[in-house]
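Loading example: each entry is read as two labelled lines plus one structure line.
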Amino acid sequence: MTQEPEHTGPSDALVRFDDVRKSFRTARGRRQQALDGFSMSIPRGSIVGLLGPNGSGKTTALKTLLGLVRPDSGSVHAFGHALPKDQRHVAGRMGALIEGPAFNASLTGEHNLRLIGELHGAGPTEVAEALELVGIAQAARRAYSGYSLGMKQRLGVAGALISGPELLVLDEPMNGLDPEAVRDMRELLKRLRDERGMTVVVSSHILAEVELVCDWVTIVRNGRVICDAGVSELISRGTEHLVVRVHDTVTEQAVAVLERHGHTLTRAAGPRGTDELRMPAPRPHPHAPEVLRLLTAQNVYPRELLVESVSLEDIYVAAVRAADAAAEDGPFDERR
Amino acid sequence: MNAVDQVRGFGAPPWRRLVRAERHRLTAPPAVRRVAAGLPLLVLAFGLSKLFTHSPDTGPALREADARYQEFIEQAARTGMPTGSIGPDSFFDDPRYLMESLSFGDLRTVLLGLGAAATVFGIVSGGADWASRVMLTLTAAEPGRARLFLTRGVLVGGLSMAATALCGLLLVPCLLLAAHLRGSTGGLDSAYWAVLVSQFLRGIVLVGLLALLGYSLAVLTRHVPAALAIAFLYLAGAGRVFGGRGPRLAEYDMDGLTFAVLNEKPVVPMAESDCISGPGCAATHVDLTAFDGFTGILLYLLPVLVLALWRSTRTDVG
């Protein structure tokens, strides 16, 4: 699948990156392009998933938004302010967890949070509320050094929430969380969006989680956005497939029937002496009843008939492959 | 940003909040608290140890001086060595705590110890949050990195100076007690107190500058062990770099400059100095003043401070 980046994004964008470029010098002295014409928008009141392989520029983009990294060129706007020039005006409106949680190991979780909260003018009530919100209130008085990775991660999110931000920036927040904690985190992010109107940006490798929690997804590859759209829209754009599983003794007969009626098929071996016949299934009616009727009329009875839906993972893999193929063909700018 | 935003915490924190938060952050680590509590106790112990290392009874010391003098005379007679003006007094090691002469050296010892501690405190304060990546959170909350750098620097210096002032105020009564019970408080006139207070105040400033030097090195390296190593190398080697760059600084290393700050000529005239060798003696013997010493230390500090400020404000974080 090839997607043209939709740089325009939604009309009420809270954050906007336009053609941002940033390079770093590596330890060997070479220049490495971390962001290469990076453009994206973050819609207000949404949960945005930032996806991409390691080193694709996700964290650099988030750091640019937070003023930790200065772009070489291009522009970043947040809350209507140009960054990093007006970073001071937006600092308290953003909460962030970048590159994992970072706290003083010798202090308790609560003490660490109090120190961050003090900078934002948050008192003990806000600290207690943040700890409660992420579900580690019972461990608040334990030393941070004794926390599990999941607890550290939750404390990091609490630290990001302490200022009561409008925009929450979370870099890999699901790292180290057990399945129950992942579910809690997902619910928390949805609650923050629904009850507080918070906008959330989540960079993650866990595509299934992003699919479950995010409204909007941006896929980054080699420092540029290769796909930027609403999750439901992306999935609806993808092609579903109808899969007919038949016993391998009737495979040829089934193929002949279906091809005679104009269906394009691909075959694959299925489990326990079956074959799978896969064909595109247009929405909203993937012609399953018609296929069933055709086959049974010829005394071919499928073992199973199912509609294979498109996942974000399919979209991600397709987008990354398409971007890689395009990169091999030549520079992006030339292709345009 | 409007006033409501400011109250709600939108935008960067105001100065007062920033200073309070950073003060709490710098003093929060248990290790810092333990050292902060331990230093005054250590200084008290040092001051009170004078009660046990000195004695008001000069009898045994006089007898020992006489015995050693007799031994010396006999040896001189055997070898034909001239005795000159050497008398029993030359062999007298006074066991009393004489406040007027001994307090300067004791105060200097304490100030040098606090200076070393302040350098380490500065390094830890400047480097630990970089090492633990807490600076990512801090710089995201306070984008004015120069504000953050200066606030921390002033706090590191200020807290070190406050600790030094407290330690000095604890030390002097202990020394007075030792002098009262185990020696003499004779000669403690206004001139004496003026000189002692002057040395004390210069020591406080010196400790603040050393803390700032450690802090700057740590911010520059963003790494505690590296800053410790570089601080050592820098203090050991910068004398060669800065040799001859400033007025009358040609041959003085950090030891000499520190000594000059604490022992300028009016305080310890060369003739009364107990120096035998070393850079401290060199500083005293060529009449290096405290002003010269401060100038030299600033010459050491400023390039590091400027580079640290540049790295802190102009380079990417993380």
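The domain at 13-235 of chain A is CATH 3.40.50.300 (Rossmann fold).
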